[in-house]
Amino acid sequence: MVAAQARELLQTIAGRYAILVALALVVIALSLGSTHFLTWRNLLNTVESGSIYGIVAIGLTVLLIGGQFDLSAGATFVLAGIVAAKLQPLTGSGLALAAGLLAGTAIGLFNGLFVRWFRASSFVTTLASGMIVVGLGTLVTGGFQLYVPDEDFAALGNAQLLGVDGFVWMFFAVAGVAGFVLSQTQLGRWIYATGDDPEAARLAGIDVAATRVGAFVFSGFAAGVAGVILASRTGTAISGAGLSDVLFPAVAAVVVGGTSIQGGRGAIWRTLCGILFLELIRNGLNLLEVDPYYQSIAQGAIILLAIAADPASRRGA
User: Fold this and answer.
1) What is the percentage of the chain residues whose pLDDT exceeds 70?
2) How many alpha carbons lie under 13 Å from residue 141 in its C-beta half-sphere?
3) What does the DSSP 8-state code read for residue 206?
4) Cβ contacts of residue 33 below 8 Å, gap of 6+?
5) Are strands 164-165 and 236-237 parallel, antiparallel or unpaired?
Protein backbone atom coordinates (compact mmCIF):
# COMPACT_ATOMS: atom_id res chain seq x y z
CA MET A 1 0.00 0.00 0.00
CA VAL A 2 2.74 2.43 0.96
CA ALA A 3 4.78 1.47 -2.10
CA ALA A 4 1.79 2.08 -4.36
CA GLN A 5 1.17 5.49 -2.82
CA ALA A 6 4.85 6.39 -3.17
CA ARG A 7 4.80 5.31 -6.82
CA GLU A 8 1.69 7.40 -7.46
CA LEU A 9 3.31 10.41 -5.78
CA LEU A 10 6.42 10.06 -7.94
CA GLN A 11 4.29 9.82 -11.08
CA THR A 12 2.42 12.97 -10.08
CA ILE A 13 5.65 14.87 -9.45
CA ALA A 14 7.12 13.62 -12.72
CA GLY A 15 4.01 14.68 -14.61
CA ARG A 16 3.75 18.14 -13.12
CA TYR A 17 7.34 19.20 -12.56
CA ALA A 18 9.43 17.25 -15.08
CA ILE A 19 10.37 20.45 -16.90
CA LEU A 20 11.76 21.97 -13.68
CA VAL A 21 13.85 18.88 -13.01
CA ALA A 22 15.11 18.94 -16.60
CA LEU A 23 15.99 22.64 -16.29
CA ALA A 24 17.97 22.02 -13.11
CA LEU A 25 19.89 19.16 -14.73
CA VAL A 26 20.73 21.25 -17.80
CA VAL A 27 21.96 24.16 -15.66
CA ILE A 28 24.15 21.85 -13.58
CA ALA A 29 25.58 20.06 -16.63
CA LEU A 30 26.36 23.23 -18.58
CA SER A 31 27.80 24.95 -15.52
CA LEU A 32 30.25 22.11 -15.16
CA GLY A 33 30.97 22.02 -18.89
CA SER A 34 31.67 25.72 -19.48
CA THR A 35 33.08 28.43 -17.23
CA HIS A 36 31.28 31.10 -19.28
CA PHE A 37 27.81 29.66 -18.83
CA LEU A 38 26.82 31.14 -15.46
CA THR A 39 27.65 34.75 -16.28
CA TRP A 40 25.14 37.60 -16.26
CA ARG A 41 25.78 38.55 -19.89
CA ASN A 42 25.46 34.98 -21.14
CA LEU A 43 22.24 34.33 -19.22
CA LEU A 44 20.78 37.66 -20.36
CA ASN A 45 21.63 36.82 -23.97
CA THR A 46 19.88 33.49 -23.49
CA VAL A 47 16.68 35.17 -22.30
CA GLU A 48 16.84 37.79 -25.05
CA SER A 49 17.21 35.16 -27.79
CA GLY A 50 14.01 33.44 -26.69
CA SER A 51 11.87 36.49 -25.95
CA ILE A 52 10.55 37.37 -29.41
CA TYR A 53 9.45 33.89 -30.45
CA GLY A 54 8.46 33.42 -26.81
CA ILE A 55 5.67 35.96 -27.26
CA VAL A 56 4.32 33.80 -30.09
CA ALA A 57 4.65 30.76 -27.82
CA ILE A 58 2.52 32.46 -25.15
CA GLY A 59 -0.30 32.92 -27.65
CA LEU A 60 0.02 29.32 -28.82
CA THR A 61 -0.09 28.10 -25.22
CA VAL A 62 -3.46 29.72 -24.59
CA LEU A 63 -4.79 28.36 -27.88
CA LEU A 64 -3.47 24.85 -27.29
CA ILE A 65 -4.96 24.73 -23.79
CA GLY A 66 -8.25 25.59 -25.47
CA GLY A 67 -7.88 22.54 -27.71
CA GLN A 68 -6.92 24.36 -30.93
CA PHE A 69 -3.75 24.94 -32.94
CA ASP A 70 -2.34 27.72 -35.12
CA LEU A 71 0.04 26.83 -37.94
CA SER A 72 -0.30 30.35 -39.35
CA ALA A 73 1.42 32.01 -36.37
CA GLY A 74 4.79 32.19 -38.12
CA ALA A 75 3.33 33.71 -41.27
CA THR A 76 1.26 36.12 -39.16
CA PHE A 77 4.42 37.16 -37.32
CA VAL A 78 6.11 37.98 -40.63
CA LEU A 79 3.14 39.80 -42.17
CA ALA A 80 2.74 42.03 -39.10
CA GLY A 81 6.29 43.26 -39.57
CA ILE A 82 5.77 43.71 -43.31
CA VAL A 83 2.62 45.78 -42.79
CA ALA A 84 4.39 48.00 -40.27
CA ALA A 85 7.45 48.50 -42.49
CA LYS A 86 5.38 49.14 -45.63
CA LEU A 87 3.11 51.72 -44.00
CA GLN A 88 5.76 53.60 -42.02
CA PRO A 89 6.65 56.06 -44.82
CA LEU A 90 2.95 56.81 -45.32
CA THR A 91 1.55 56.96 -41.78
CA GLY A 92 4.52 57.48 -39.49
CA SER A 93 5.98 54.97 -37.07
CA GLY A 94 3.28 54.85 -34.39
CA LEU A 95 0.36 54.17 -36.72
CA ALA A 96 2.43 51.75 -38.81
CA LEU A 97 3.35 49.63 -35.81
CA ALA A 98 -0.27 49.70 -34.63
CA ALA A 99 -1.40 48.58 -38.11
CA GLY A 100 1.01 45.65 -37.99
CA LEU A 101 -0.39 44.63 -34.62
CA LEU A 102 -3.94 44.99 -35.96
CA ALA A 103 -3.06 42.81 -38.97
CA GLY A 104 -1.93 39.99 -36.67
CA THR A 105 -5.06 40.28 -34.57
CA ALA A 106 -7.26 40.26 -37.68
CA ILE A 107 -5.68 37.04 -38.93
CA GLY A 108 -6.35 35.43 -35.57
CA LEU A 109 -9.97 36.59 -35.74
CA PHE A 110 -10.34 35.20 -39.26
CA ASN A 111 -8.95 31.83 -38.18
CA GLY A 112 -11.27 31.66 -35.19
CA LEU A 113 -14.38 32.63 -37.12
CA PHE A 114 -13.61 30.21 -39.96
CA VAL A 115 -13.18 27.33 -37.52
CA ARG A 116 -16.40 28.35 -35.77
CA TRP A 117 -18.61 28.90 -38.81
CA PHE A 118 -17.47 25.87 -40.79
CA ARG A 119 -16.62 23.61 -37.83
CA ALA A 120 -13.30 23.05 -39.54
CA SER A 121 -10.11 21.56 -38.16
CA SER A 122 -7.90 24.30 -36.74
CA PHE A 123 -4.87 22.42 -38.05
CA VAL A 124 -6.05 22.45 -41.67
CA THR A 125 -7.60 25.92 -41.44
CA THR A 126 -4.46 27.61 -40.14
CA LEU A 127 -2.26 25.65 -42.54
CA ALA A 128 -4.28 27.11 -45.41
CA SER A 129 -4.52 30.61 -43.94
CA GLY A 130 -0.78 30.57 -43.30
CA MET A 131 -0.17 29.87 -46.98
CA ILE A 132 -2.46 32.77 -47.89
CA VAL A 133 -0.66 35.08 -45.47
CA VAL A 134 2.74 34.11 -46.89
CA GLY A 135 1.44 34.91 -50.37
CA LEU A 136 0.10 38.28 -49.21
CA GLY A 137 3.45 39.11 -47.67
CA THR A 138 5.22 38.29 -50.93
CA LEU A 139 2.79 40.45 -52.89
CA VAL A 140 3.28 43.41 -50.57
CA THR A 141 7.07 43.21 -50.62
CA GLY A 142 7.43 42.07 -54.22
CA GLY A 143 9.87 39.49 -52.89
CA PHE A 144 12.30 42.17 -51.73
CA GLN A 145 13.42 43.19 -48.26
CA LEU A 146 11.88 46.36 -46.85
CA TYR A 147 14.10 48.84 -44.99
CA VAL A 148 12.94 51.38 -42.43
CA PRO A 149 15.73 53.70 -41.24
CA ASP A 150 13.45 55.86 -39.07
CA GLU A 151 14.62 56.23 -35.45
CA ASP A 152 11.09 56.39 -34.05
CA PHE A 153 10.27 53.11 -35.77
CA ALA A 154 13.36 51.51 -34.21
CA ALA A 155 12.56 52.72 -30.69
CA LEU A 156 10.09 49.92 -29.86
CA GLY A 157 12.54 47.11 -30.52
CA ASN A 158 15.74 48.77 -29.31
CA ALA A 159 14.76 50.69 -26.16
CA GLN A 160 16.25 49.52 -22.87
CA LEU A 161 15.08 49.58 -19.27
CA LEU A 162 17.45 48.85 -16.38
CA GLY A 163 20.02 47.56 -18.82
CA VAL A 164 17.63 45.03 -20.35
CA ASP A 165 16.10 45.34 -23.81
CA GLY A 166 12.53 46.59 -23.75
CA PHE A 167 11.17 43.67 -25.76
CA VAL A 168 12.24 41.32 -22.96
CA TRP A 169 10.03 43.28 -20.55
CA MET A 170 7.22 43.11 -23.12
CA PHE A 171 7.63 39.36 -23.29
CA PHE A 172 7.29 39.04 -19.52
CA ALA A 173 4.35 41.46 -19.55
CA VAL A 174 2.47 39.38 -22.14
CA ALA A 175 3.31 36.22 -20.21
CA GLY A 176 2.17 37.79 -16.94
CA VAL A 177 -1.18 38.91 -18.33
CA ALA A 178 -1.83 35.56 -20.02
CA GLY A 179 -0.81 33.65 -16.91
CA PHE A 180 -3.09 35.75 -14.73
CA VAL A 181 -6.07 35.30 -17.05
CA LEU A 182 -5.58 31.53 -17.25
CA SER A 183 -5.05 30.94 -13.55
CA GLN A 184 -7.15 33.61 -11.86
CA THR A 185 -10.16 34.44 -14.01
CA GLN A 186 -13.38 32.82 -15.14
CA LEU A 187 -12.27 33.20 -18.75
CA GLY A 188 -9.21 31.11 -17.96
CA ARG A 189 -11.39 28.38 -16.46
CA TRP A 190 -13.54 28.44 -19.60
CA ILE A 191 -10.46 27.97 -21.79
CA TYR A 192 -9.30 24.98 -19.77
CA ALA A 193 -12.78 23.44 -19.75
CA THR A 194 -13.18 23.98 -23.50
CA GLY A 195 -9.92 22.24 -24.25
CA ASP A 196 -10.49 19.38 -21.80
CA ASP A 197 -14.04 18.41 -22.81
CA PRO A 198 -15.91 20.74 -25.20
CA GLU A 199 -19.24 18.94 -24.81
CA ALA A 200 -19.12 19.02 -21.02
CA ALA A 201 -18.16 22.69 -21.18
CA ARG A 202 -21.11 23.42 -23.45
CA LEU A 203 -23.49 21.61 -21.11
CA ALA A 204 -22.07 23.67 -18.25
CA GLY A 205 -23.17 26.84 -20.03
CA ILE A 206 -19.82 27.87 -21.52
CA ASP A 207 -19.90 29.42 -24.99
CA VAL A 208 -17.29 27.07 -26.43
CA ALA A 209 -17.25 28.64 -29.89
CA ALA A 210 -16.75 32.18 -28.58
CA THR A 211 -14.03 31.01 -26.19
CA ARG A 212 -12.15 29.39 -29.06
CA VAL A 213 -12.48 32.50 -31.21
CA GLY A 214 -11.07 34.58 -28.38
CA ALA A 215 -8.09 32.23 -28.04
CA PHE A 216 -7.41 32.52 -31.78
CA VAL A 217 -7.57 36.31 -31.55
CA PHE A 218 -5.03 36.29 -28.73
CA SER A 219 -2.73 34.01 -30.70
CA GLY A 220 -2.86 36.39 -33.67
CA PHE A 221 -2.34 39.37 -31.38
CA ALA A 222 0.72 37.76 -29.80
CA ALA A 223 2.19 36.95 -33.23
CA GLY A 224 1.53 40.53 -34.27
CA VAL A 225 3.29 41.91 -31.19
CA ALA A 226 6.34 39.76 -31.86
CA GLY A 227 6.35 40.65 -35.55
CA VAL A 228 6.33 44.42 -35.08
CA ILE A 229 8.98 44.15 -32.37
CA LEU A 230 11.36 42.30 -34.69
CA ALA A 231 10.68 44.69 -37.58
CA SER A 232 11.36 47.61 -35.25
CA ARG A 233 14.50 46.02 -33.84
CA THR A 234 16.07 45.22 -37.21
CA GLY A 235 14.53 47.99 -39.30
CA THR A 236 13.72 45.42 -41.96
CA ALA A 237 10.94 43.09 -43.07
CA ILE A 238 10.84 40.30 -45.65
CA SER A 239 8.35 37.62 -46.55
CA GLY A 240 8.78 33.93 -45.84
CA ALA A 241 10.97 33.79 -42.70
CA GLY A 242 8.43 32.72 -40.11
CA LEU A 243 8.53 28.94 -39.92
CA SER A 244 12.02 27.91 -38.88
CA ASP A 245 12.76 31.14 -37.01
CA VAL A 246 9.51 31.52 -35.07
CA LEU A 247 6.84 28.85 -35.42
CA PHE A 248 9.03 25.80 -34.90
CA PRO A 249 10.81 27.04 -31.76
CA ALA A 250 7.55 28.46 -30.36
CA VAL A 251 5.72 25.15 -30.76
CA ALA A 252 8.74 23.31 -29.38
CA ALA A 253 8.79 25.48 -26.27
CA VAL A 254 5.08 24.96 -25.62
CA VAL A 255 5.28 21.19 -26.03
CA VAL A 256 8.55 20.75 -24.13
CA GLY A 257 7.16 22.89 -21.33
CA GLY A 258 4.40 20.35 -20.79
CA THR A 259 1.29 21.94 -22.24
CA SER A 260 -0.76 19.04 -23.54
CA ILE A 261 -1.21 18.71 -27.29
CA GLN A 262 -4.62 17.19 -26.49
CA GLY A 263 -5.86 20.40 -24.85
CA GLY A 264 -7.19 21.21 -21.41
CA ARG A 265 -3.89 21.17 -19.54
CA GLY A 266 -0.89 23.47 -19.42
CA ALA A 267 0.30 26.78 -18.02
CA ILE A 268 2.22 29.87 -19.03
CA TRP A 269 4.97 29.10 -16.50
CA ARG A 270 5.47 25.78 -18.26
CA THR A 271 6.02 27.53 -21.58
CA LEU A 272 8.47 29.94 -19.96
CA CYS A 273 10.39 26.93 -18.66
CA GLY A 274 10.24 25.33 -22.10
CA ILE A 275 11.68 28.46 -23.73
CA LEU A 276 14.43 28.68 -21.16
CA PHE A 277 15.18 24.96 -21.46
CA LEU A 278 15.59 25.08 -25.24
CA GLU A 279 17.59 28.31 -25.16
CA LEU A 280 19.90 26.98 -22.45
CA ILE A 281 20.57 23.89 -24.53
CA ARG A 282 21.22 25.96 -27.64
CA ASN A 283 23.43 28.36 -25.73
CA GLY A 284 25.30 25.59 -23.97
CA LEU A 285 25.93 23.65 -27.16
CA ASN A 286 27.26 26.83 -28.77
CA LEU A 287 29.61 27.38 -25.85
CA LEU A 288 30.76 23.79 -26.20
CA GLU A 289 31.19 24.38 -29.96
CA VAL A 290 28.86 21.57 -30.97
CA ASP A 291 28.04 21.44 -34.69
CA PRO A 292 24.71 23.24 -35.43
CA TYR A 293 23.43 20.15 -37.27
CA TYR A 294 23.69 18.15 -34.10
CA GLN A 295 21.87 20.92 -32.26
CA SER A 296 18.87 20.53 -34.57
CA ILE A 297 18.91 16.78 -34.07
CA ALA A 298 19.03 17.21 -30.29
CA GLN A 299 16.15 19.69 -30.26
CA GLY A 300 14.02 17.47 -32.48
CA ALA A 301 14.68 14.49 -30.24
CA ILE A 302 13.67 16.51 -27.18
CA ILE A 303 10.36 17.48 -28.81
CA LEU A 304 9.61 13.85 -29.67
CA LEU A 305 10.32 12.83 -26.09
CA ALA A 306 7.98 15.54 -24.82
CA ILE A 307 5.20 14.38 -27.15
CA ALA A 308 5.73 10.75 -26.15
CA ALA A 309 5.58 11.71 -22.48
CA ASP A 310 2.33 13.66 -22.86
CA PRO A 311 -0.12 10.78 -22.25
CA ALA A 312 1.85 9.65 -19.18
CA SER A 313 2.03 13.18 -17.81
CA ARG A 314 -1.75 13.54 -18.19
CA ARG A 315 -2.20 10.46 -16.03
CA GLY A 316 0.15 11.97 -13.44
CA ALA A 317 -1.43 15.41 -13.49
Assistant:
1) 91
2) 26
3) -
4) 284, 287, 288
5) unpaired
d(CA 258, CA 17): 9
Length of the chain: 317
Q: How far apart are CA 291 and CA 28, in angstroms?
A: 21
In a 10 Å sphere around its CB, with 0-12 CB exposed, 13-18 middle and 19+ buried, how is residue 17 labelled?
Answer: middle
How remote is the C-alpha of 299 from its chain's centroid? 16
CB 79 within 8 A of CB 40: no
DSSP alpha helices (H): ranges in 185-267? 186-196, 198-203, 208-234, 248-257
Q: Is residue 300 scored above 90 in pLDDT? A: no
What is the rounded distance in angstroms from the CA atom of residue 71 to the CA atom of residue 247? 8
Q: What is the pTM of this model?
A: 0.92
Q: Which domains does the chain have, with CATH numbers?
A: 20-316 (1.10.3470)
